[in-house]
Design goal:
Shape of chain A: globular
CATH architecture of one domain in chain B: 3-Layer(aba) Sandwich
Radius of gyration of chain A: 18 Å
Distance between the termini of chain B: 84 Å
Strand order of the largest sheet of chain B: 14-15-16-17-18-19
Largest sheet of chain A: 9 strands, mixed
Number of helices of chain A: 6
Strand content of chain B: 25-35%
CATH topology of one domain in chain B: MutS, DNA mismatch repair protein, domain I
CATH class of the largest domain in chain A: Alpha Beta
CATH superfamily of the largest domain in chain A: P-loop containing nucleotide triphosphate hydrolases
Number of helices of chain B: 15
Number of strands of chain B: 19
Oligomer: heterodimer
Strand content of chain A: 15-25%
Strand order of the largest sheet of chain A: 4-2-5-6-1-7-8-9-10
Shape of chain B: elongated
Number of domains of chain A: 2
CATH architecture of the largest domain in chain A: 3-Layer(aba) Sandwich
CATH class of one domain in chain B: Alpha Beta
CATH topology of the largest domain in chain A: Rossmann fold
Distance between the termini of chain A: 21 Å
Structural class of chain B: alpha+beta
Helix content of chain A: 25-40%
Chain lengths: 258, 511
């Protein structure tokens, strides 16, 4: 209970809210639903999420895509295109989207933006969020560029909430500095379950994901698995090997930190 | 048709004085003078002064020595030019367009218009009569080219007409070389060369003239160019005078008004009329003039200048309101007129466009346009499949809104990575057998221990478009001990005769 109060105090100190969002309404949501735990398939209503991932693997974007499919599963008939924005460093570190490897329902709708600088990438993200014909927007920005400060992050949040387009911003090899994302994930690849017919082969995509900041959910730590049509989650440490200190346990840190 | 107002400055002075030629103050010797760096100089002299020996371009002191009784008036070249401009517009009664020939001439294009006046001779007679009625001494000539008409008007016989079929050179050979509209120094040069008539120039041959004046680019300095223009061998563009009508709206009032609120009402109506007039022309006003005629014949003028072209009536009224505070209506105002002497193009603007985008979001095409304009067309693309089994050739990049090419079916690959590196990165491997799968590999400074793998998937080069020495690739989908999944391949086989030991590359990052 003391944590809830602390969080509402922090919220009062936060910058002014967007027009149309009443402070009282948000506080009520916060105090009422903070105890909810996130689970796959839950309509989060979150329009701006950040995923922190290592640059040497594709887990960040893969989780973002899985979460996007999870959030938008209600309208499977949605054939609007989606936007994938990468800045140059992200493109060099983690490669370009590969159409045959994308999920089948998404591969023909991809529009890719290769931005030269983080500023251009932020511009493209904001323009994408303003567009009513895009299903969702995925951004990939490497490290902590100066352009992506709290103000820029807040701009993205406001644009996403105003126009209702969801944004998953993947941060490669980045510190979790100030940001206004409603949900912040930290993800790394995890050992996949052995496939039934060839136990020696890599299995379904599996990630060890930690929700370390969320406005309406308790922080948590899960092992998420892509089940083609849905996202499967099981609490971390149940059956999957521990990955040392890649991610810390939930609840071990105060909300005010990072 | 070329018109030469031989005595334009003096004719204007006579019109302003209201005296006829050779009468009144024009009977005595008189000269118009221009101030120069070396003192006053005669710009024009009337016939009485000419008879005393006063010449144009002479210094006033020298002229006074010849004719002590010489009266002087200042010349007004700017006024002459303005007069010539209005005269050029008026001269469009004889042809569809006219051009200025400063300082005292006009060129009117009468092609196909002479029959309206009963032939070219009648047209010239009409021209002379109309100009004489206005009090202007003028000479006019008609010729197929502007240069020939100019030459005849200045140096030819009175009322000369050249038909289209005439041999121009033959008819013009007797004119002096000054008829070519050349600069003074070139005239001097030609006189020193002994070339006095146009016939002389034609007689010495083109090559000689071209060589002598090879570095003179301007037509006024090159007799050959002027001669060709005279004969119609090269075009001579002229800048026509076009009348710019200034928008004007006015309200006549049935009862003279004396009170400010009524004047404000009238001004608001005028501003709306003006906005409509300007909108029809696609223009906005930079300067507005409001003139109010009072009952006693007095006119009050208020001017307004705007920083940017506008036609917003409310804005105009607000700006004028401050200017009308000191207006004295006297016995009443009976006519108010609003005119816009200075306008600039101002297109119709859709003011709601941005607001609508702000509220409902932009369309996909607008979004793509904005991205493309800032980032370039190469940055915004979509992947489209291509019929190739080589991984990096299996997709190509196309503009985002281009329709997808017709394909029967995508290639169905077994498992492909989510992302592909632009250029496969070499990895250092430790293997037990050269044909088998490595146990460890080093990539970007980190060591990865392969825990599970699937493969090989052998992809042969496309022999129909690549050289025969290109090596095949054996792809493996692997997962390392911490769960990271990659797509690596061995380039070639040991002992395939296409190079040394096979190398390993990492090409894709799996989800």
């Amino acid at each position: 209970m003391s944590r809830i109060e602390a969080s509402s105090q922090i919220h009062v100190l936060s910058p002014p809210l967007a027009a149309g969002l009443r402070r009282g309404a948000v506080s009520r949501v916060l105090s009422g639903a903070k105890s909810a735990r996130w689970r796959p398939g839950l309509a989060t209503g979150c329009r701006h999420a950040e995923v922190f991932a290592p640059a040497g693997e594709a887990s960040g974007v893969a989780l973002a895509l899985a979460l996007a499919r999870d959030a938008l599963c209600t309208d499977a008939e949605d054939q609007r295109p989606w936007l994938w924005v990468q800045d140059k460093a992200a493109l060099r570190l983690s490669g370009r989207p590969y159409r045959p490897g994308l999920p089948p329902h998404l591969r023909h709708r991809l529009i890719h933006v290769a931005a030269a600088t983080p500023e251009d990438a932020l511009f493209a993200l904001e323009e994408g969020l303003r567009c009513r014909d895009l299903a969702f927007v995925i951004g990939e920005i490497a490290s902590n560029p100066r352009a992506l400060d709290f103000t820029a992050s807040r701009r993205l949040s406001l644009a996403a909430e105003k126009h209702g387009t969801a944004l998953w911003l993947v941060r490669l090899d980045a510190r979790s500095d100030l940001g206004s994302a409603r949900m912040r994930w930290r993800v790394a690849a995890a050992t996949s379950p052995p496939p039934r017919w060839n136990p020696q082969a890599p299995g379904r995509a599996t990630w060890s994901a930690e929700l370390f900041r969320a406005h309406t959910f308790q922080p948590g730590h899960w092992t998420l698995r892509d089940e083609d049509t849905a996202l499967a989650a099981e609490p971390a440490g149940s059956g999957t090997p521990d990955h040392g200190d890649l991610v810390r346990g939930p609840g071990a840190r105060s909300l005010a930190a990072g | 048709m070329a018109i030469w107002c031989a005595d334009l400055a003096l004719d204007r002075w006579r019109l302003a004085e209201g005296c006829a030629r050779g009468e009144g103050s024009d009977a005595a010797p008189l000269a118009l003078i221009a101030e120069t760096a070396h003192g006053p100089r005669i710009a024009a002299a009337n016939p009485a002064a000419m008879a005393e020996g006063v010449r144009a371009h002479a210094m006033l002191a020298d002229a006074r020595a010849l004719c002590p009784a010489l009266a002087v008036r200042p010349a007004d070249p700017a006024g002459d030019l303005a007069f010539l401009e209005t005269l050029a517009l008026w001269a469009q009664r004889w042809g569809p367009w006219s051009a200025l020939d400063p300082p005292d001439g006009l060129i009117v294009d009468t092609t196909g218009a002479a029959h309206l006046f009963g032939g070219e001779a009648m047209l010239l007679a009409d021209t002379r009569a109309q100009l004489r009625r206005r009090g202007l001494a003028a000479r006019a000539a008609i010729a197929p080219t502007a240069g020939a008409a100019w030459a005849l008007a200045h140096y030819g016989p009175e009322g000369a007409i050249l038909e289209a079929g005439d041999d121009l050179m033959d008819r013009l050979a007797a004119l002096p070389v000054a008829a070519l509209r050349l600069d003074d120094d070139v005239l001097l040069l030609l006189r020193r060369l002994g070339l006095k008539r146009l016939g002389d120039l034609a007689g010495i041959g083109r090559e000689a003239l071209a060589r002598r004046f090879r570095n003179r680019r301007s037509p006024g300095a090159n007799p050959l160019v002027r001669l060709d223009q005279l004969l119609g061998r090269v075009p001579e563009p002229l800048l026509p005078v076009v009348a710019a009508e200034q928008p004007m709206v006015q309200r006549r009032l049935m009862e003279p008004i004396r009170h400010r609120p009524l004047l404000d009402r009238v001004l608001a109506d005028l501003a709306e009329d003006m906005a409509r007039a300007l909108e029809g022309r696609g223009e906005g006003a930079r300067r507005l003039e409001m003139a109010a005629w009072k009952v006693d014949g007095d006119v009050v003028v208020r001017r307004l200048e705007m920083a940017a072209a506008t036609r917003d009536p409310a804005h105009v009224c607000r700006l004028f309101a401050a200017r009308l505070d000191d207006l004295d209506a006297g016995f009443g105002i009976e006519l108010v007129r609003l005119s816009a002497p200075w306008t600039e193009p101002l297109a119709l603007a859709q003011t709601e466009l941005d607001a609508a985008a702000e509220r409902h979001g932009t369309s996909l095409a607008a979004c793509m346009d904005r991205l493309t304009v800032r980032l370039g067309a190469e940055a915004v693309r979509r992947p489209v499949p291509r019929a190739s089994h080589l991984p990096e050739r299996a997709q190509r990049w196309a503009p985002p809104l281009e329709p997808l090419p017709g394909l029967q079916e995508d290639f169905a690959f077994h498992e492909r990575p989510l992302k592909l590196l632009d250029r496969p990165e070499p990895i250092a491997v430790i293997y037990e057998a050269p044909d088998g799968l490595p146990r460890l590999f080093r990539w970007r400074g980190g060591v990865h221990e392969i825990a599970r793998a699937e493969g090989p998937e052998r992809i042969a080069p496309e022999w129909w478009r690549e050289r025969s020495t290109v090596r095949l690739r054996d792809y493996y989908r692997i997962e390392d001990s911490t769960g990271r999944r990659y797509w690596i391949y061995r380039h070639g086989l040991a002992g395939d005769g296409r190079g040394g030991a096979p190398e390993w590359f990492l090409q894709g990052l799996c989800a």
